[in-house]
Queue: 3 jobs
Job 1
Amino acid sequence: MEDGIQTKLLRHEEEEEEEEGDLKGRIWDESKKIWRVALPGVISRVCAFGTIVVTQSFIGHISGLDLAGYALVQTLSVRFVNGILLGMSSATETLCGQAFGAGQHHMMGIYLQRSWIVDLITLTVLLPIFIFATQIFKLLGEDAAVANSGGNISLWFIPFVYNFVFSLTIQMFLQAQLKNMVIAWLSIFQFGIHIPLSLLLVYKLNLGVAGAMIALSLSSWFLVIGEFIYIFGGWCPHSWEGFTVAAFKDLFPVVKLSISSGVMVCLELWYNAILVLLAGYMADAEVAISAFSICLNINAWEFMISLGFLGAACVRVSNELGRGNAKAAKFSIKVLLGTSIAVGLFFFILCLIFRRKLAYLFTNDERVAETVSDLSLLLSFSVLLNSVYPVLSGVAVGAGMQGTVAIANLVCFYVIGIPIGALLGYLTNLQVKGIWIGMIGGVVTQTVALVYMAWATDWDDQVKKASERLNRFYVKSSDNPE
């Protein structure tokens, strides 16, 4: 009797160990798949955003006024346009990811070309934002000197922003088919040439602010040219079959998905831009804008790592939904969140340790440095939150649920976050710190909303929707004309 009980207990323990070993194996396999997408995405985004931060650092050491002007353009105008293009490009991520999962590789090149058409038209329509920047900033009530400096810098940003049309969409096209390591290498090269190029143009040739902006545009286009060579050179034989008139067909459904994607991302990116605008109305506008934008850029630079996980979430979820495997999609979400939170905790601790030294990377102004130091604790918590909600946003993009997230972003950021920030910033002595507390409040509520959405989603139903979407957009391959 006792022997039988012991045998059963031993068998039960063996089964538990086997299940535990199987779970560890599944987590390890899923982690490898995640990092295969996330690591190149992290490297490319950190390097690409790094060129913007390095340019800000060069300009900050040239002139305090131009630092504020650059911050205004980069945080308002560039973020506004980048938000629209990044959001609209995430439609490419959804469609290419699901097409790759379903084995419809030839459709990916068609989706890429459709995105180029839609994004090029969109950016051209938005150019007046850069051309009339001075007038727009003054209309918004910004300081006249800062607005004039921003207007001048804004014109230099025009050749830079056109790289977004191609770099964002190509990255998502290659990422969906697990070929984005090439973008990581190209991005490292881009960042590597940006610093010596900036030194040459700013100090050796003494071009000042103009030199810093020329270096930014040149290095960004090196990346795009490298991507073109990779795609057109035959390294994507199954997903790129050349230019085709099919790209001009069925544009409306792509525009519709692009708009919902654009609204989702824009509401998130514009949130920070509006908070910078609020900082510009404070007593010492130059110091407030500079300090706030420095903290936002540090936060955004770390956020580039989170965007790598956002991309991984989108690819893994869209691939599994395209394959019809809802269970694998749910398991991937759990592993993604665990990994991203661990990374977020590391940077949370790092920000706390170096809280008083961060500002001097960008400025020599003691007043700005002191304000940044005051904001550093709140910055640390923002960095930690970055490890959760981008992953959940990536899950939504992978499933094509951008419209639902757009509504959540609208309520959490604009009904909760901005009013709280404005009240604390202007009706208390917290000033810029109050605005940042409001920003965190909006992000916390958005994170809760996204967690609930992921938990409540019927993933089997999402598999059906992915299949319907692929069938609706399907075009026969030239290699498979049947």
Job 2
Amino acid sequence: MYLTWLDNNSWLIDLDEVRILLDPWLVGPLTVGNQEWLLKVTHRTPPAIPDRVDLILLSQGLEDHAHVETLKALDKAIPVVCSPNAVSLVTGLGYGSVTALAHGETYTHETYTHKGVSIQAFPGSPIGPFLTENAYVLTGQTEGTRLYYEPHGFHAPALADLAPVDVAIAPLMTVKLPLVGAIIQGQESAVDLARSLCLRYLLPTGAGQAVDYAGLLPSLLKGEGGPAECRALLAQAGLATEVLEPKPGDCLSIAPASSPETPSVAA
């Protein structure tokens, strides 16, 4: 398995010869409802669009996970798997193969040479009182390597039935908004996740590094914790989960659990 962090919540996942572009934001600024006064995030150096993408995977229908300008720039022939909340957006942009996964449903993307990757949807981030977006478990059908992704730190109890999981991509920092509370859960949430999934590795997501923030919203947000604090909490809990910290553009090589190889940054 190869995991390339494209900054923020965007990842390129190579698993069993399937290249999956996850929650991509690669083109133009990131805003909320086109209200730049509220939030505008820009890449210092925009990531390149990958030369090959076999599948686009969207966890939410919100702008920071289903970024319109990026989706406009990608090939509309690429199949899309998404939360039900993102369906109207991607179909409206002209994508012809769109699969919405409700919680508990599974999609399998096969290749000519490999058994492919299965993607199972779980409850993820609550968006208001009536909508819960998706978390995903990706399983390589050849070697059984398994990855979990949820970008806001809301992890379903049913995930424990899937343990052990090799890698989780989840926030390690808690982010709070005045009068609202935690909108992103890290720290203890990440430790509980590591324990329930018997994780080998934990990778942070959401905390953009090579980006610049503007607008009112960033000044109101308060962040607590991070990778170092998470390592300390994992040690206190007696967990062997290793926290990896890729930089934007790094490609991590993750070997199957049966392999003696340790994670490395691929050339």
Job 3
Amino acid sequence: MTRILIKTNRIISAVLSKYKFSTAAKSVASVQIKGKEFVADDYTNVTPKIISYLDKNLHLQKNNPLSIVRQRIVNYFYSSFTHRGHPAFSVYDNLPPIVTTKQNFEDLLIPADHPSRAKSDCYYINRDTLLRAHMTAHQSELLRSGLDNFLMIGDVYRRDEIDSTHFPVFHQVDAVRSQRQEELFPDKPELQIFEPTFDKTNPHTNHINDPMKQSCHTLEATKLMETQLKTHLIGLTQALFGEDIKYRWVDAYFPFTHPSWELEIFYENDWMEVLGCGIVRNEILVNAGPSNTIAYAFGLGLERLAMALYKIPDIRLMWSTDSGFLTQFENVDLNASITYKPVSSYPQCTNDMSFWLPPTYTIDTFISNDFYDLVRDIGGDIIEQVKLKDKFVHPKSKKHSLCYSIVYRHLERTLTQTEVNQVHKEIEKAVVDAYGVVIR
């Protein structure tokens, strides 16, 4: 208990200062991250707790299940694609997580009004800089450097709900494979990547009105790339889950690919999405340099795969340093069938928090993700889940009220109700100070 209270007291002032700024527009001069100072502004919403996850690199930590899955994926691409006896794909697994909004959005043709840009979805350092929300943020810079086949692997940061399958930091593998005409059609020089009527000097004349292809591409080129893409990803899925895994393709939409698909597998009597993919928009390729290629891209989450492969019930376990967890993945064959065995089960403690909102908020304008971040910053890793339990508008006073249920559970020991109550009180205090609410 003492350890948790010391930790709580140590971060509470920093947390409150951050949230007062983000919700009440108070002046905060700068944000310090990894020894570098960033100017703060009205977009700044990154929290001390989130900053503490930088450079953990779980995907590179020996005996972590994420690292095992990462290596299995890399091995598949190394063995499946070679050039003159060497792997055709290059791997970048230590790219810096701080990116510009141009890298994260504009370079990928994500519109200014797209919901993925919202402050409620991303961790902004300031209006122009954020913690990457996807590894695809590095796609254009790698294309610009002259690469054509590459994997990008690392941690990404998104504001989200709190439960056993969601965490504000997770890990992705994104990939791009591009081909020139002579590579795509080595034996058929009469076939073309681009439609004869397409003006390569003006890539923005490309359109995506046809669900089958981009207007710049020929149907033959698109279909051949689609076949390659789906064949390679089915092969990857079978390498991970076995030859008999059931799968299906679902049409999808992503701003940076067209056409686009999601791959689902039949897992535990239900369909589960494992990745998204598609043909890279030609505008992205031209803006990054290569104007004579066609490319496909895909992205997948390591946590989702690892939890399914090894039956890991709680995403927080990926961050555990407990030897009882890590030794289950120690010095194992990469392709071994592993089923996670719980070290022990500890009981949950659930406390509700109800409060009246000040007049500046309504039950519809209060952003739950702001509240989730505040709870996580103070409660840390003992927060298992936060749920919006009830919304209420008083019929006479017209005051708006919210009730959240907070589930506390430690992964390595039993929490006492006394220490949970203490952390709960600190969260109440933080909510009052940050938002001006009145605890019910």
